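In the current project phase, the collection of sequences with tokenised folds has grown. One resulting record follows, to show the layout:
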Amino acid sequence: MSALSEYWLAARREQKLTQAELCRRLRANSVCELWERCASRPYPFVHRVDRAEFEKLCPGEFEQIRAGAEAALAHRVDLLGSGPIELGPRIDWLTDFKSGIRWPTQYWRTVAYGEPADVKVPWELSRLQWLIPLAQMYLLTGEERYAAGAGDIVEQWIASNPYAWSVNWACTMEAAIRILTLTFLFHALHGSEAFANPDFRYRFLKSLYLHGDFTERHLERSDINGNHFTSDAAGLVFAGLFFGNGADPGRWQRLGLRSLEREVQLQVLDDGVVREGSIGYHRLVCELFVLPAIYAETSSRRVSTVWKARLRGMAAFVAGYSREDGSSPLWGDADDARALPMRHGSPNDHRYLIAMVSAFLKDEGLSRKFSGPVAEVFWLRGAQSAARLLGTQPDLQPSQAFPTGGLYVMRRGEDHVFVQCGNLAFAGRGGHAHNDLLSLEASLNGQKLVSDSGCYLYTSAIGERNRFRSTASHNTPMIDDEEINRFVPGELWVLRNDARAEVRDWKMEDETSLLVASHSGYKRLKDPVTVVRRLHLNHRDHRLKVEDRFEGAGAHRIAVPLYFDPLVTVEEFEERRAVLVANGKRFELTWDAPGWKAAVTPARVAPSYGVVVPSMRVLWTYDGAMPASLTYRIAAMAST
């Protein structure tokens, strides 16, 4: 159907979906029957909770959930770096409350977005995930005020966002992810007094049905699919399995499961790394593949062994990149996106994915890679699965290579070094990848020291978008002020595929790990240069040594930055030495750099989307003939 005809038919499609028509399509005699039938269908998340058991297995979580629920009742949110925002009694769903810019009510294909408004703000608000604590508190306490608050907010959203006619329909992914939220709210709250009104029940089910209809009609299919199409397919699975009966739900679930079955083999590399070029999107895509798989098998629909193997690989990669404290590297883009968050703690802790996948697969080996809070798996798989994980002694994670994804983790105990040595992500197009080839993050002796700069904003600040994905914002050499992979003018998710990576050596031993890698991004220069980086981690004395060699001819300008975690301060800085201090721990940074200059300069790190904090960096610069070399070392200092 043409876009023009869709424009005229969208409003009619919603108007025609009367109670009688909805029931006819879903093979029910009444909305009440349909409501009860949907409530009786299998659903993967628990909707009966023993509070005492929950508090025993998930200490501290109840208070976090209650705080989130009380904030939601007050219509107070903190999204995408906004800080606490009071939305008022009548929520304006069409405004970026960070910039104050508002979109009119208009057909979704005509919505434009760009600087200075951030369209992700109304989208994030309209995912309705901030209502999940209300549903959780209702299950934990039975207090009707939580259900009533959630119902009122859902009513407001439906009234303010006619089918296909607002900014919150302008991306199919947003409608699809909203399906997941709405199904959870339904199963948690369907028996409450607040959800008992027949007219409300009709409007709720009608909206959920229209979300499935919209998602199917406007799939974000491309020659190279990513998290958008995966979200669409996951939404179809949830909508189809939720309704069950009827031609449309049957078609949705079949299309969604068939699409995910295909995409999990294309989007997840054989070493478990998602091809998005980002740890933040690895987390999201892993959720988008595991949750529909669990829902399908809960509904007696099997998924393939290949699908399950890819899930196992994704979880193993999470175990590899997760540090002892649960934090994750800031590799590539990150907008903190979740498919259906059941825990509202640090957005940088991804270990729950290991728990979810291992519980689903009943994989004891994978469960021994897990440590950390079990709240996510409690809500998904129940108290028994959560208790089983708590009773498992985690294995010590070794250094690991993920060669297809081009990622290497040098680690032992409290030392963890993450290195990017792969070719350009998303089939060589870039996607959510940055110009970070040979870049590293490093934690020594339990303290994060070297940090990626992260990802700050997208379309609302194009200059910042390009700045944070540039070569200069990563812990990797830059030559002649040129990007490793050149930018494409006007394209915020595309890079030219200029560089090829080569891993020359990789060794894992009991007390040391060694990685030697190079890239060809600067061989396109008039006088070509090959960048070679050698990293050696000594686990015994928490010492990291990095040697950079620049093979080539001619004269060049080279800049090698080392960005520090925001908690790190430079206490001393001398000609060949600096002392770094963080959380009472001291580290010595030394370097051998004949002909190089060194300086400490201000820097910025974006630990999550929309948030940027001051930091510091050491910047080494060289201007002269090739070949050249730079060596620096970071080591823990003895306590005084």
About this structure: The mean pLDDT is 96. The CA atoms of residues 368 and 392 lie 6 Å apart. The first strand starts at residue 76 and ends at 77.
